[in-house]
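Students often ask why we bother encoding 3D structure as a string. The short answer is that it lets us treat folding as translation between two languages. Here is a chain of 1203 residues written in the first language.
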Amino acid sequence: MENCSAASTFLTDSLELELGTEWCKPPYFSCAVDNRGGGKHFSGESYLCSGALKRLILNLDPLPTNFEEDTLEIFGIQWVTETALVNSSRELFNLFRQQLYNLETLLQSSCDFGKVSTLHCKADNIRQQCVLFLHYVKVFIFRYLKVQNAESHVPVHPYEALEAQLPSLLIDELHGLLLYIGHLSELPSVNIGAFVNQNQIKLFPPSWHLLHLHLDIHWLVLEILYMLGEKLKQVVYGHQFMNLASDNLTNISLFEEHCETLLCDLISLSLNRYDKVRSSESLMSDQCPCLCIKELWVLLIHLLDHRSKWFVSESFWNWLNKLLKTLLEKSSDRRRSSMPVIQSRDPLGFSWWIITHVASFYKFDRHGVPDEMRKVESNWNFVEELLKKSISVQNSSFSISWLPFKGLANTMKSPLSMLEMVKTCCCDKQDQELYKSSSSFTIFLCILAKVVKKAMKSNGPHPWKQVKGRVYSKFHQKRMEELTEVGLQNFFSLFLLLAAVAEVEDVASHVLDLLNFLKPAFVTSQRALIWKGHMAFLLMYAQKNLDIGVLAEKFSCAFREKAKEFLVSKNEEMVQRQTIWTLLSIYIDGVQEVFETSYCLYPSHEKLLNDGFSMLLRACRESELRTVLSFLQAVLARIRSMHQQLCQELQRDNVDLFVQSSLSAKERHLAAVASALWRHFFSFLKSQRMSQVVPFSQLADAAADFTLLAMDMPSTAPSDFQPQPVISIIQLFGWDDIICPQVVARYLSHVLQNSTLCEALSHSGYVSFQALTVRSWIRCVLQMYIKNLSGPDDLLIDKNLEQAVEKEYMKQLVELTRLLFNLSEVKSIFSKAQVEYLSISEDPKKALVRFFEAVGVTYGNLQTPSDKSAMVTKSLEYLGEVLKYIKPYLGKKVFSAGLQLTYGMMGILVKSWAQIFATSKAQKLLFRIIDCLLLPHAVLQQEKELPAPMLSAIQKSLPLYLQGMCIVCCQSQNPNAYLNQLLGNVIEQYIGRFLPASPYVSDLGQHPVLLALRNTATIPPIPSLKKCIVQVIRKSYLEYKGSSPPPRLASILAFILQLFKETNTDIYEVELLLPGILKCLVLVSEPQVKRLATENLQYMVKACQVGSDEEPSSQLTSVFRQFIQDYGMRYYYQVYSILETVATLDQQVVIHLISTLTQSLKDSEQKWGLGRNIAQREAYSKLLSHLGQMGQDEMQRLENDNT
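And here it is in the second language, the structure alphabet:
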């Protein structure tokens, strides 16, 4: 098989490569890897590289181009492809076993150099036939096997009856085949280490072929069983065999038993490797003796993990862990009899070794290609068990025999872990094998605790006094000065144990006295351990519900001193700062544990929260601040929890005076601790509202916790926050426009999540709570691209609209939007507007758009003036100083995403709230919006180019502004000349700025001014907007300076033409624009201008046409009459030519001008005083010839006139 194989190609993920015959050769195991595939890790003919595994998992045809003929040859016999397995399954499997026997027989032949070629060819041929047959079984199941209807009573064909028995027959045959070949680890006289290429011509002994055929059989049986289940979608029962539990054998049970057996074999092969290598070489030694064994591991990983995801079955790690656990068991009777006996000199080390190697196999994908980014399925639970075993058997020092991990477990204990160790020693029920897992000192402590407890239980305090005397006498000044680090740790362990079983106050007091004997140098070096021990005693006091006053006083003073040192230390003194911070963190973590452990608080708890925290907060960097603020949040949560419990107890019925007095005292103690938090922490948070020193998330979280504390215990808040501390804090962190939006969004999310708080504020008489919260939400959305309001670099990097907002902030904004839409005021607005909003709360920008629209619709539906006035006031309250929110986007640093958001949202606001802006209360804001966004100073400088991002944002949103302003002009309560002027100025500025470079009508389709007229299905005042546009064109774009035509005349003519094409032309518009267009035709000779002016003339004349029996428009006639009077004498030829064009469209218009034309001719001749102007008369006669009988009559009169 190796000699004849051509280069194979990797299978792509789509599996859509053209299928060639060579590519679809049946795959098989081979460790004779060549480099023809370009650095493959497995053979090109392997199950991975050929794509066979992926086809199996995706339920595709195993071999699309094989077995397509009517007949096939297997074992030297011709068979009918579509029926052979049904008609002759037993014969085929018998022939298969015979071929296996023939291959086993070849092993008895001596394999010297002279015979190796012959033996290789014979063995290879047998293996080819066997592998081909098993692949045929797979293809037959996929293509030809039909699912029988077991409930059908219709007579069936004999073949169908046989076919119905085939699945059960296959189960029996496959089971028999597995029994025949046995375990991989039991192959006779096979040296696995010798299964490598022995020479350059790649000839292998029969033993090599037998092993690899066994691998093929083991894997292909799993494939067949898997395909059988996928095809039939039901359990298939065997007829001949039962499993080990005496149940009928099924395809599922056989699959699982075979998986277990195969994994046992692989573990056994790995164990053989592990036991033969030195410990120092284990990590570098390959687990697999052959590349095909490695491939089999990878195949099992993919198949078993796939089954666990789609079926109720165990994952690969579960299978392996279950088998390794049996290996770690000491009694062999727990092992299943079907599993081979696996024994190891070092089962724990081997377990570490094998899971380390197997985990590396997860990097191979379904094609055998290594992918370092591929996720490894977690196996932590089993690793955790191994860690525990490794630590426990190595006398408290973590060690693996083949990996130098010693010392990892010997880390310094925390105060809580010191207490936990003591509790373990004091436990009544001790481990029977304690001597194996603990040190001698720990065993001593366990015995001491047990003896003292038993003696005190029987004889009272006298035994304790004896023990105390003996222990105390052992520690004196000299002994304390001799203590090492380990000795000091054991000292604390001993006295903590004594405190746990006897008099804690007496022991703690004695420990404090003894610590004074330590040498100053030793105290300095071991201060962290001393603080941990001190804190452990504090925790024990708290757990025993004792007053911690004595210990807290001394410890808190030491903390204050260290906090002061930390404050004055320089940032360059990193070692000193780190040393101090280690101590401070011990104190912080310990105090947190004290508060979380204490059943109730005493006045002494307040001592732990001294002004050392005020100094510490000012000195902290970001990472250190996170620790301190996490501590703050934990303490705040504990205080609130304890307060709620007290309130519940006070509200109970039948509380006697003594209990009530006790509860009141506890509440006072709580209030004292809360006041300390306000004093030492909140002032710092307040001062950092606008800085970036404190992480945004923690600043918001801590401020929210203080808000809830103010709700629960308002009297504890500072006096300057009274009488409404909650409102005062929300004003600072939620409604203040100078706070970063990241802080506001997170803070308000916390506030709105508390329904009790929201309900209280909504009904507290502070009616603006919801409105101000909406205002802050609007600001957070509008400022989503701003990361720091106070710094010079206040804009995020301009990547694109989707990536420019930090993911965390966007999540917070989504959450705030969802909560805000649950406010009663917001719900009411959407309800009255009948606008759906639930589906868009996941997108804050869309939600804001929908909110603006809902407010506008709600206002439009109001009837009474008082309701409308109140709604205008509320709407303006929602907006606040909206122009300040968007101001950072309009600075020198151009930011396209921010500009798009700003102009788009403000455009929607102007259009949606047009009726609101039509009121006198709101017009001032509209004027400011227009001046700020559409008519800033830079826009008024026509010669100055606007930044491209700004121009793009205006172009997209300008239709919204024009439509909104037009509505305001039409519906304004007080007609405002300035507003109309403002609209005209906007149109004047942007008609020209968005004219295309080339005057083609097709380029004008997306001009924003025209779009404003086009997208007005819901905007009634189109004529008003168009009228303003026409007036602006007449005034600013068709005015001649002397004889010089206006700039970009062709482009403006194209714009006018597009305007007439898209809208209905009014005679008023013709009256305004036609004189200018006629002037262009007379005075401008540029072909493009003349063509566009002529087209405009034609549109205008057609628009003014009336029926043949009616008179033409008097306004149109008036325009042409004035045109003749202005240009008839000097430009008579051009005038007559233009009127010829008009005559072709509407004769009646020109006929009504005959008297004016004739009079102009006579006036011209009289002016020049040269008699008849023959050339002019001929041109006039040509025009008259187009006017029918009336023209002929006028020509005759001119001939007869002798004047």
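Translate back mentally: The chain is about 65% helix and 0% strand. Keep this in mind for the problem set.
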